[in-house]
Structure formats: structure tokens, C-alpha cells
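so my prof wants the structure for this chain in the C-alpha cells format not the other one, which i didnt know existed until like an hour ago. anyway here's the sequence
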Amino acid sequence: MNLPPKVTDRAFSRLAEIAEDSGEACALRVAVAGGGCSGFQYEITLDEQAEDDLVLEKDGQRVLVDPVSLPFLANATIDFSDELIGARFVINNPNAASSCGCGISFSM
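here's what i got, hopefully its the right format
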């Protein structure tokens, strides 16, 4: 069964920090596009909500997924990682057959 992606508390907290630092509330858009070294790649940006977006919301913070990207992100987890290599939003996607070292590109 395909469930919408989940967003961790850590990702929502980081989104709240970004909004606080910038002084404006923006939603985090997670999209899947063709390309990258493995066939598909994640595009993670701050964006405005579109009419047909799936909205995942907690404590006033929003994560948006467009209808085309949604099947690629079924059952995935959107998280925030703060490691030595850098702080970034990461996608843990059970649908990805393989992914490259950067964690941005994947295949199905």
C-alpha cells in the first residue's frame, strides 16, 4: 500500500528555524525530477504552495509534494541530517533501487 511520505520532527524543527531566521514562512518543496547520476533526482527547495500539492503540516510548518512526484515518494521519510559532511534535508526512500553517494540521485 502506498502511503504519503512522512516528515520527521527534526525536519519540521529545521524548517521552523529557517522561517525564524529569514523572517518569512516558506514551505519546503520536495520534488522528483528526471536526471542525476542514477536516473531521478530530488529537488528540495523553499516554495509557495500550489493548488494540487499534497501538504504535510505540523506546528504551522509545511512540506509540499506535487502530484507527479508523489508516487516516487510513497512511504518515504523526509528528514534533516546535521553531520560532518554538512547539514541538509535527506530523503529515506524505500522505493529507490539504488542511489548515488550524494543521496540526491536514485533509480527505481
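also thought this was worth mentioning. Residues 6-107 form a domain with the Hypothetical Protein Aq_1857; Chain: A; fold (CATH 2.60.300.12).
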